Amino acid sequence: MAGLSTDTPTPVELTVHGRSRVLEVAFSDGARFRIPFELMRIYSPSAEVQGHGPGQEVLQTGKREVELADLKPVGNYAVQPTFSDGHDTGIFSWDYLYFLGSQEAQLWADYERRLTEAGVERDAPMAAKGGHACGHH
Residue 74 domain-assigned? Predict the structure, then answer.
C-alpha cells in the first residue's frame, strides 16, 4: 500500500466536515467515502500507531472526539493530517484513504474486537507514553 500504482483512483475532492468529524473524499472512479476522523486516527499509518512490524501496533483509545486541526498535502500522492490530540506523523496516501473508506465496516469490527481482546473501552484515555525508544514522536 505504500506506493501508487497507475490504476489507483485519485481524489477529485477532499472536504473536511468539522461538525460531523468526517473527511469526505470523492475519487476519480466515482467512489465517495465519509471517513470518520476517529477511524483515521486509530488506523494512522504512522510508526507511533503501527509500530515497526506485525504485532507491534499500539491500540488507540479515547479518540471518538478527535478533531482534524490541519490537513496538508504531501506531493501529489497523500495528505498529512494534524489531529487535535497532537498526532501529526501519519502520511495518508490516496490508496490508504481509499482502503479506509472502502473497508470501514470491517475496520470498525476489527477495532471493536481488538478493544474487547485488550479489555479496554473505546473511550478510555490512552496510557502514558513510555518505553518506546524508536525516537519517532
Answer: yes
Distance, in Å, from the CA atom of 65 to the CA atom of 83, rounded to the nearest integer, reads: 10
Residue with cell 513510555: 130
Tell me which DSSP letter residue 112 carries. H
Question: d(Cα 41, Cα 64) in Å, to the nearest integer?
Answer: 9
Tell me: pLDDT of 134 over 80. Answer: no
Q: How many domains does the chain have?
A: 1
Q: Which three cell numbers stand for residue 107?
A: 475496520
Sign of CA dihedral 120, 122, 125, 130: positive
Structural domain contains residue 86? yes
Q: Which three cell numbers stand for residue 74?
A: 504531501
pTM: 0.88
- The domain that contains 96 carries what CATH number? 3.30.2020.30
Q: How far apart are the first and last CA of the chain?
A: 22
